[in-house]
Write a structure and sequence with these properties.
The chain is an alpha+beta fold and 213 residues long. It has helices at residues 2-18, 56-64, 175-178, 184-198, and strands at residues 24-29, 32-38, 44-52, 76-86, 89-96, 105-115, 122-128, 140-141, 144-155, 158-168.
Amino acid sequence: MQRIILILCLHLISIDIHASGEWLLERDENGTKGYCKVHESGYKYCKIEKIFPFTLKELVAINTDASYLASWMETAMYAEQIEKVSDTNYVNYLQYDIPYPFRDRDSATRTHITQDSKTKEIKMEFKTDNSIREQSIEFEPMEFIFGYWKFIPISKKESKVEYAVLVLPGGNLHSVLFNPSAVDVPWTTVQNMEKELLTGRYKKTDINYIENF
């Protein structure tokens, strides 16, 4: 019991120390870097950075292929697009595998895609919009998800990728249990995305609303 109390106290102290807004490096392996900081909710907000040998169109193509997202996004079991306002404004529905004894989660997230006309940098910002889908009795809805993909061109065939995500899973999955692996899910997602892109699946995809560098 005393050990549990000590762990909780140390966790609260770490939140107080790291809530300054500074990104802290948590993983650094083979050119990939993972940073986190603690959100005011107590949950970690993490981002992954890596330079890839892929074009802007390839990176956007894989992230807008809704039905294929679950094949490479870590913890995702199912994905589909349930609303499309335009190519750059849409809602995806996803289901997530959560370790026992917690219930699996689901979410509806709205994505907005923008591209800077001068630098050609692309940002895909997403946020939960669970109001557009009825709650399932099988899944517990994610309380809140916010994040973005940033694709920064370095050359015609090379781009820096930045993937940041904050997840508040809701229910009884407290930050003390969630935070230790918070950086690992986006880290694995980025690694999986690279493997998929290396197959050449999206190499010839033509996306007319995106300009390559």
